[in-house]
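Internal QA ticket QA-208
Title: Verify multi-chain structure generation after dependency bump
Assignee: T.L.

Test input:
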Amino acid sequence: MSGPLKLSLTRRYRFAASHRLYSSAFSEEENKRLYGKCGNPHGHGHNYLVEVTVTGPVDPTTGMVANLSELDPFVAREVLEPFDQTYLNEEVSQFREKVPTTENVCREIYRRLKNFPSARLEKVRIEETSNNSFEFAGESGAPQERAQ
Amino acid sequence: MIRVTRKLEFSAAHFYHNPNLSAEDNRRLFGKCNNPHGHGHNYVLEVTVAGEPDPVTGMVLDLKELKEILQREVAERMDHRHLNYEVPELAGKIPTCENIAAVIWALLEPKITKGQLDRVRVYESPDLFADCTAGTNGVRPKQGGS
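Actual output:
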């Protein structure tokens, strides 16, 4: 009766970091116009909330798409440890060249997690504040498969 | 198409144990979730039904009816139960939120007669949930863990 099913697992993580939105490609004036108070030279911080969604067959041994005993340390090693309590612009090398907007942070976190060995990374979603959220599901941006 | 979502909370006990594995492997795989006395969660179930609103009622389906279906099919089976021992549909399965979501999908799908079951989401805690949808899973790149 029921067709094939797709299972995914989503886990929420948190880190706190500071950043400054500023691009050397623009003049001071343009930076000010573009980024406003987000360009304050001393930076500012957020409590970022990161939602990581993985998908794949349910392992019959564990009943799980991914065991948190693998996913949690992987995310901790790849993202939380290098990002938490840091100034992203200076302390995460990718953001020395790239403006650490949450769009770019989202892509960078996706890049760091996409080789998770036990399940396929489907999506990274970040809440920069409770009012702003960003999602990245890979370059193809494939939206979640849905029932026809 | 419109998607309508109804929520249900239920509280239940469970633990993770695979009888085909040694006690040591169970502890290694499942950590403290393997505690044989079990532990509990306040589960939150979100059921989404998709469809076109009926031109007369303006509804995809009557949410009162959906509430009753969730009460009958899920709450009465799982609320204040031990999922390892008291829910026949989960017998022989490890009661992870993935398996709970798949079992709830199978229970609800035949009962939803207006609109189409679109997604079953089971939160084990605010920071962990599983989604069950129609479709196929991507192929696991490499067998890990187990």
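Spot checks passed. Chain A has five helices and five strands.
Status: verified.
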